[in-house]
Prior knowledge:
CATH superfamily: Farnesyl Diphosphate Synthase
Shape: globular
Oligomer: single chain
Bound molecules: geranylgeranyl diphosphate
Number of helices: 15
Strand content: under 5%
Helix content: over 70%
Amino acid sequence: MKIFTQKLSKIATDTDLYLKNFFFKNKNYQYLIKPMQYSVFSGGKRFRSSVIINMGKIFNINYQKLIIISAAIECVHSYSLIHDDLPAMDNDDLRRGKLSTHKKFNEFTAILAGNSLLLIAFEILTSGDLKLSPSIKNELIKILAIYSGFSGLAGGQFFDLTYENKKVSKKKAIYIQNNKTGKLFAFCCECSGIINRQNFQKRKKLKNIGLDIGLLFQIADDLIDIKGDSKVVGKPTKRDQNKGKPNLVNLIGYEETLKFAYKLKHKIIKKIKTYGIKSYDLLQSIEFILNRKF
Ligand code: GRG
């Protein structure tokens, strides 16, 4: 795990370096850049970036291209966290051990900084820095837009909030988490298939691996909410139960959810191993998910 965290840290440094240059080159004079940078450089793990890089390794995709795509995805992720923390959504004052963006600045600034981060992600994908053909870039942008919108992140978040304190089936809870968290991971895996112009079936396999990774990651997040140390997590824990979140822990309990998570982990590992020796680093990412403390 130590080697994995060292590799994760290198990926985080490279992603942040690209992002810092992108901000510096293009927009440093605009006021909204401050809250955007506050959010995006506040110490996220960059785990989504590691999935992009480690899946890309299997298909021999150029590292710098993957770093640029990672930078875009971290902007979408930061956007979703800023909006998730707003009073109208999860109403959290802390994120990554710091004030959430609306607490540090104000609500309208947080909303606009979030919107701008989502849009800058697409700007990054269209940039000349990303040396890919226009048709591949177009497909990356299309899939990211679909997976972020009403049938992806935003849709999942809508149901997550709508079904607070309501009875949901296990199937529905998984559906919500697949969209809220899984779809961004689906993009992280499928983007390799898009770049290599894979056929529909091969891309679908990558997408499904990503959805499962996202589900496992979200379950780990929910388990940490129950047993995690709020100082290590960087935000208050034990909140999901009070909020009546439609997640597996609230539905089937901690122990059953843990069993479900280990089964899911083995299913993901089995699928990834079909890619052979080059999948080693991606397998390490999967090991990290249930071991992480924050
Ligand atoms: C992006 C179009 C669009 C809409 C946003 C607010 C929203 C709709 C979605 C929220 C989705 C959300 C907050 C999912 C939670 C996912 C999750 C487990 C977050 C924590 O991720 P980590 O642990 O965080 O990777 P760090 O801090 O390491 O980056």
